[in-house]
Amino acid sequence: MSKIMQRRLADNIASDHLSCPICKDPLQDPKLLPCDHTICCECLTQLIHSSRRYNKFSCPVDRREIRAPSYNISAEEWANSFPTDDLAIVLLQTIAGDVTMKAKSKNAILCTEHPQSVCDFFCFGCYQIICSECAVENHRSAECNCKNFKKCADLAREKLEDASDEIENLISQGQEIVTKEIGKDQLLMQSRQQIKNTVLRLKSIVYNFEKMVNRKSLDILNKVESVVNVEELQKKTEEIVTDLKQVRDEIEYSKSQTSTKDMLTVLSNIPKNLQRNTDRLNSLGVSDDPIEIKLELNEMFLNLYDTLVDQPIGTVHVVRADTLYFEDTEATICNQRIKFSSNVLPSRALELEPFLQIKDEPSGQENKIAARFTGLTLHGHAIIAIDNANFKVKRFRDTIKDHFIDEISIPGVYDITNIHENDDVLVTSPGTQSRLFRLSTYKSLSIISETVTDKAYYNISRLPDSAFAVICHSRPSSATKKRANFDWSRGVTSHIDIINVDGNVLKHFSESFLCEPTEFGDPFIMPLKSMCCLPNGTIVASIETKTHSFISCINQNGRVKWTYNLNDTSEGVSFYDGKIYVFLRESQVVRVLSVEGGLKPTSTFRLPHYIGDGSSLIVRRNLLTVIDKTSSIKLYKLQ
């Protein structure tokens, strides 16, 4: 018989009778099943593992069921208990005279040092896949630890797990670097803004020296902008984290594979990847200390005009952030407690410019009752206000002080809001008989429709899709269930309803959901003070408990998205242009929180000549309006 025919016969015998029905490779440690079919010991172990909960498995050839001899036997013990197929071993050894037989296996790895040999060893000291000759000749040092493929699966998984943990630590390290740098960059941006504001003030004081001030101001701003730039550091760190995540994903995928060779191939590349990314992270050389930029003005520059040209405007200093200049605030977002530091102390608040005041007091009529404004909306070029004391809806010009247009009387009227893409407005009337009015603003104020409501609606705010959020105050007699931990001394509780323009209730958020006992303490009576609606349909409410005052964001699925403690008594709340505005009673300031890119305090405004409670706040068209149940309405310009 020719060698070609011998080789062909050997190939046919190997592929038809000496290959595993599961992995399709030449049999390794063949085990003979009771049905006379042969399977690799490792494949048999995996097969038992996959169906172990039934305490039996089926032959992959004829589907015959084979039951375990006992419930306590492990998969490895059960697989090894089957007899070895000696005939298969003899035939394999006979055919193995030509190593190319092994090379035909789809998973065979040829040795780079000995091309005629198939790799069947792994050195855990050098992290290399090698053949038996390499193991004998080149891997005999104390650091080397060579294992046959059949005996290194458990150790390989252990090494992969260790590598995965190390990569997770590096990923966390990289993400922490980005987080710290973003925090430091936030402080720098705030410091830059403070300096810019100071420079603008200088320019107004020394108007006669404008050209000189402009030149030196630009020099200062350029120095400030060039102090530090973390964009490149962020980019490099994010690239490293992305590479590490990719390696981690490859490891996770390889751990799910049944082939030991696939796992070892991934494992062999890990040391190089870990070392490379570790070196890249260490090379970033970042500092843990945040910095603040301060501008020290020269007083002589402000007072001595005759020597102004010879005096420096100021000196820019890069120093560590001083906590005396910054205020810590806290928020609960996704059940995580987060602290913010920012230059929003009341003492450093920016004063807004007064724009307009509407004051409606008795004059000339002895029996006339002073106005008590409880609601307001900006409509076209007019201000429509609610006078709760006189039960009237009044309209004024939005640019002329106390310029009255017209009014309409509505019993018990309390608050007002615009109807989306419509000239009409919606008015709440929680009087003796609670009602909801739809008014036309065309030519003169007039009632279009009147709906009697089951509940007393007070504050109202517009939501997307022609829906509205209303604050309801209910007496205990109208409540179906009383909460034992509520103090009913004042006889009123609060909740929020979502209604349509006709007053039909679409959703109901009870007081037990909005104000259930939390880390801020038990609910207080009438805890809902003010609210506003965001473009995405979520509701931001100002809430006060017995021990704390805070604002919370509630989505329409009935979940609290975040809770923010402002370390002050929160009153009126409004939303405009991506920011939430909150009036703080004790500090007498308006705190501004950015919604985009995370909840962050951005600035604080002081309202000159205003000493009220700020129970209602509206921000529209760069105007900030305060309504605090008094006889006047004050408007301020946002800079």
Q: What can be said about the biggest beta sheet?
A: 6 strands, antiparallel
The neighbouring-strand order within the major sheet is: 11-10-29-28-27-26
Q: What is the count of helical runs?
A: 13
* Shape descriptor: elongated
Task: Find the structural class using helix and strand composition.
Answer: alpha+beta
Query: Hey, roughly how much beta strand do the residues contain?
Result: 25-35%
Quick one: how many beta strands?
A: 36
Give the N-to-C terminal Cα separation: 99 Å
Estimated radius of gyration: 38 Å
- Overall mean pLDDT score? 77
Question: What share of the residues lie within helices?
Answer: 25-40%
Q: Indicate the low-confidence ranges by residue numbers.
A: 1-5, 98-104, 322-326, 476-491, 516-525
Oligomeric organization of the protein chains = single chain
Protein name: TRIM2_3
Domain RING-type: 20-63
Domain B box-type: 106-140
Keywords: Metal-binding, Zinc, Zinc-finger
